[in-house]
Amino acid sequence: MRNKSQLVLLLLSVFLIVSCNHKKTEDASVVVSTDLKNIISSDTLRVATMYGATSYFLFRDEFMGFDYEMAENLASRLNVNLKISIAQNQSEMEQLLLDRKVDIICYNTIETINLKKDFHFVFPQPESYQVLVQNMGVNALSDVTQLAGKSVYVKANSIFHQRLKALNEEIGGKINIVLAADSLSNEDLIDLVGENKIEYTLAYHNLATLHKSYYNRLNCRMPIGFNQPNGWMIRAGSKELQDTIEKWEKLPTTLELESNLYHKYWEKSPYFAQLKVKIPRGAISPYDKLFKKYAALINWDWRLLAALVYHESRFDSSQISWVGAAGLMQLMPRTAANFGLDKQTVFNPEMNIEAGVQYIKSLNLTFRKVENKDERVKFILAGYNSGPAHILDAMALAQKYGKNPQVWFGNVEFFLLKKSEPEFYNDKVVKYGYFRGKQTVNYVHSTLKTFEKYLRKK
């Protein structure tokens, strides 16, 4: 009888333990599964990221970055606000996510076995591999064995630190591994190499190549690892949030934005323009005097001309676009030649501005039928961005369909967007065919918004 009672008590204890453990598991599951619900109910998507050339930075009073703009788009898709938390390092970002102080890490993070225990990777981005970052020259290293006796700077406990320790063992323990200050990021270390303050660091090839667009003597040719997957991170088990993000990232509008932003930030980030362009205190740009001088020729407020140039080149006189537009005002080769510039003089700030203003004068003549001066400015901005032909087509469509061909917003801009649809680009009044007008529409809006900001500033 006693043995039977003991057996019952033992079984009861096991049942209670199992029940408690099951309840804990259920409770944890309930907490995790409410991630998306909490985002919606709080009306806020909380994001952790770090400052960097592609992630998040402030330029001319505007927040920019590939990860930032994609996070903005995700928040917009969820119809919630976006709240950014800036971390000093990756460990801090991870802790913020584990402590449920943020919902997602929007930063290019490499997948590892350890990270996948606590986190799930979403929004995958192009794979990359680790390289040695050094400067060009006769003493540049070409083989990992040559690292023996060299000092290589990395962040403690980073993925670069782990790779370097493994590499050190492979070549006999002769690499001097220097642990960088915690306040320095991997991008800071790349910059220190570019500035000849340290000799070597490790980085991913795509990021090192981006920094090479500013530090042209950087050498990032020597691989020391294989391609690795990467992306953003959410907490493991956040299934509803994971599903939502995976649906969002496959949307045509998301794919188009990702492609545009990848070109904008990963091929030649505006982050480096602010390193090149030194703006005097209290000024809008380094070229305020030139804008004042030449804006008078077209009867524009000089700050409107400054806003146009900002959106063309970010005030970087050495800028060359992928289609060959060059200089401050991003003049196409034929346009530059029409106004007397050649391959060298197109980069002269004053000559480029003067030629750009002459082009604006020609656009003013093209759109002379737009009687209201303020409205005509919008047409000129649109024509500057896309060329006047497609704007004239949109004006003709507006006229045909009962809209005002002399008003931009809600009228001509509407039909410029319609020029990507067969019904409209095949219309008899359209002379110049298909056109995707979204970029031009955004350009007009953004330039006028920047102009308004400049008006408040000075």
How would you explain this protein's 3D organization?
With 458 residues, this protein is an alpha/beta fold. The chain has 4 domains: 1-29; 35-124 and 230-271, D-Maltodextrin-Binding Protein, domain 2, CATH 3.40.190.10; 130-225, Periplasmic binding protein-like II (D-Maltodextrin-Binding Protein, domain 2, 3-Layer(aba) Sandwich), CATH 3.40.190.10; 288-457, Lysozyme. The protein has 20 helices and 12 strands. The strands form 3 sheets. Strands 4-1-5-12-6 form a 5-stranded mixed beta sheet, sandwiched between helices. A 5-stranded mixed beta sheet has the order 9-8-10-7-11, sandwiched between helices. A two-stranded antiparallel ribbon has the order 2-3. Helix 6 links the parallel strand 8 (151-154) and strand 9.
Largest sheet: 5 strands, mixed
Q: Assembly state here? A: single chain
Q: Briefly note the structural class of the backbone.
A: alpha/beta
Indicate the proportion of strand residues. 5-15%
The tally of beta strands, per DSSP, is: 12
Shape: globular
pLDDT averaged residue by residue = 88
Ranges where pLDDT stays below 50 over 5 or more residues in a row are 1-33
Provide the domain count: 4
Q: What is the CATH T-level topology of the largest domain?
A: Lysozyme
In helices, the fraction of residues equals 40-55%
User: What is the alpha-carbon Rg in Å?
Assistant: 28 Å
